[in-house]
Specification:
CATH superfamily: Carbon-nitrogen hydrolase
Strand content: 25-35%
Number of strands: 13
CATH class: Alpha Beta
Distance between the termini: 8 Å
CATH architecture: 4-Layer Sandwich
Order of helices and strands: EHEHHEEEEEEHEHEEEE
């Protein structure tokens, strides 16, 4: 879980270091947060926000694909995607050969203001799932998890893993661990239990108030592992397949 800046190159350099560190510790699957290349810095000004988008495939995904190939790992991450004059809140899973194995666009529109719908801001409609060495894998992003229809659809995918990059902050910008543990985490865990698949969850960490944290939650809604809020670091979680986020 890196602390994000406003610069793509700086974020890529940080990702390179953390991925290399995790791979050296035996990680085979790594998950990074939502919008990890640029930060979730949209302000609902279409011309300005569109410039934050990266192409899939594009220079950033190719660079991260080379990192996957070098270390022999799978890498999932969220990104703002630019395609056909539209901006999407997307996620990509790269395989150990660097190829794009899964490409998802957030379905839930809560990442942009309702007033700007129909301009450049696009929402996905598909919910793809693929078979991997770690089982059947699919993405949800942030507000997707609180959409009853999407969660119901996800539960029918028969997925072994939910990859869930998200961006969450409290009013005032504090990393309130007690509030998270007592009020927020049980709600997230309950939603994961409704989806019925083990979830790897990584929250965006930045100076804009997003407080970070990483979690593994079982398909029954049990918290299996966690990384504290407000700090950079790597949460390792070992399964028979050697999953790490």
């Amino acid at each position: 879980m890196p602390r994000l800046t406003t610069g793509v190159e700086a974020n890529l350099a940080t990702i390179d270091g953390m991925v290399s560190d995790a791979a050296s510790k035996g990680a085979e699957l790594i998950l990074l947060p939502e919008a990890v290349l640029t930060g979730l810095r949209i302000n609902d000004e279409p011309a300005r926000d569109l410039q934050l988008g990266q192409h899939v495939p594009g220079p950033a995904t190719c660079r991260l694909g080379a990192l996957c190939s070098h270390h022999g790992i799978w890498l999932g991450f969220g990104m703002l995607e630019r395609c056909g004059g539209k901006l999407y809140d997307s996620a990509v899973l790269l395989g150990s050969d660097g190829s794009t194995e899964l490409h998802y666009r957030r379905n839930h529109p809560g990442w942009h203001a309702r007033e700007v719908e129909g301009t450049i801001y696009g929402d996905g409609a598909d919910l793809p799932v693929i078979s991997t060495p770690f089982g059947r894998v699919a993405f949800l992003i942030c507000g997707d998890l609180f959409d009853d229809g999407l969660v119901s659809r996800f539960s029918r995918l028969d997925a072994d893993l939910m990859l869930y990059p998200f961006a969450r902050a409290f009013p005032g910008g504090e990393a309130d661990q007690r509030r998270w543990d007592l009020e927020e985490l049980p709600e997230y865990a309950g939603r994961v239990g409704m989806a019925g698949s083990t979830a790897l969850m990584v929250n965006y960490l930045a100076d804009d108030g997003s407080f970070g944290g990483a979690f593994v939650i079982s398909g029954q809604g049990e918290v299996l592992a966690s990384h504290p809020l407000g700090t950079e670091g790597i949460l390792m979680y070992e399964t028979e397949q050697g999953v790490q986020e």
